[in-house]
Specification:
Elements (H helix, E strand, L loop, with lengths): L4 E5 L3 H12 L4 E5 L5 H10 L2 H4 L5 E4 L10 E4 L15 H18 L4 E4 L4 H12 L6 E3 L2 H16 L6 E6 L7 E9 L2 E2 H6 L5 H12 L1 H9 L6 H15 L4 E10 L5 E12 L2 E5 L6 H22 L6
Helix pairs in contact: 1-2, 1-10, 4-5, 5-11, 6-8
The protein binds 1,4,5,6-tetrahydronicotinamide adenine dinucleotide.
Length: about 325
């Protein structure tokens, strides 16, 4: 059986980490694409030299030519500019929208059958734009944010409760920004929902509220510490989790930025919701019941995403 082919568009911090994870998890051969000459080639050569030590046979190729992504099974897009301190995700809009145009056209021409995972910020608007420019079916284009946001939430909750991170599940809905909606009723330790844990005296509502707030601002906290870029280890791990769900037809139920066509009362936009990811791409959008507070917060988040889409429409990408 031929190996899977994974195209990584953008060979920066997340792109390089994705390539390393794809190699060590035996996901297939990797093509690292970037507009900067030398960087994807250098990272690919460096990573190829991990193979003998790790016992991994996946081949990596660095390139500046879209023709090399031909026939990719999965494309993971991180191309663009990352946030700097003091820069909001929305400041990135103008620059990264034009990048999505170039990337979307490259995928359309060379890998139209791929499952595409967008990571570039501002996420919910960029995944929508990438889908528009690539023309791929909506169920084959998703955005990565919810897996990362819920991983951050799970990490903070595990610390708070003093339990294994493995036993904490968490649900985060909505756009990838400060309006994201961590849902505590659907977040558990081994099946015990957080409100029950509060009643058991494991934490207090105030402490959980502070964790929810820290999760919402989780990206900014790391940007402020790094000073020269944004988080990349956990974002790459989260992106690879989604790629693996597709390649291995795992039917994972993961929060992803997915296209809504009436689900959750929303139409014509991408936003974070639980979906089933398998060989068919987004096989199902899972509609969970939300209480009034979560519903209102979700709507606020959707409105923020719509604002970004309006801002996108006002940008002339032909320039
Ligand atoms: O949860 C999430 N979705 C995110 C998103 C979590 C963390 C970071 N997130 C966003 O991912 C971040 O705001 C950025 O928009 C992307 C990529 O982050 P990364 O840390 O990898 O940024 P780098 O290191 O700057 O890498 C970006 C690369 C860099 O090598 C550029 O030369 C390249 O993108 N680039 C391009 N590649 C291909 N084609 C074009 N046009 C292009 N323009 C720049």
């Amino acid at each position: 059986m031929a190996r899977n082919k994974i195209a990584l568009i953008g060979a920066g911090n997340i792109g390089g980490t994705l390539a390393h994870l794809a190699l060590t998890r035996d996901l297939g051969d990797v093509v690292l694409f970037d507009v900067v000459e030398g960087v994807p080639q250098g990272k690919a050569l460096d990573l190829n030299q991990c193979g003998p030590v790790e016992g991994k046979d996946g081949n990596l190729k660095g390139t500046n030519d879209y023709a090399d992504i031909a026939g990719a099974d999965v494309c993971i897009v991180t191309a663009g500019v990352a946030r700097k301190p003091g820069m909001s995700r929305d400041d990135l809009l103008g620059i990264n929208l034009k990048v999505m145009k170039a990337v979307g056209e490259g995928i359309k021409a060379h890998a139209p059958n791929a499952f595409v995972i967008c990571i570039t910020n501002p996420l919910d608007a960029m995944v929508w734009a990438l889908r528009e420019f690539s023309g791929l079916p909506h169920h084959m284009v998703v955005g990565m944010a919810g897996v990362l946001d819920s991983a951050r939430f799970r990490h903070f909750l595990a610390e708070e409760f003093g339990v294994s991170k493995q036993d904490v599940t968490a649900f985060v809905l909505g756009g990838h920004g400060d309006t994201m909606v961590p849902v505590i009723e659907y977040s558990t330790v081994a099946g015990i929902p957080i409100p029950a844990l509060i009643k058991m005296g494991w934490s207090t509502q105030e402490r959980i509220d502070a964790i929810v707030d820290r999760t919402r601002k989780g990206g900014g906290e790391i940007v402020a510490l790094l000073k020269t870029g944004s988080a990349y280890y956990a974002p790459a791990t989260s992106g690879i989790e989604m790629a693996e769900a597709y390649l291995k037809d795992k039917k994972r139920l993961l929060p992803c930025a997915a296209y809504l066509d009436g689900q959750y009362g929303q139409k014509g936009l991408y936003v974070g919701v639980p979906v089933i990811l398998g060989a068919g791409g987004v096989e199902k959008v899972v509609e969970i019941e939300l209480n009034d507070k979560a519903k209102a917060n979700f709507q606020t988040s959707v409105d923020a995403v719509k604002e970004l889409m309006v801002a996108c429409a006002a940008i002339d990408t032909s320039l």
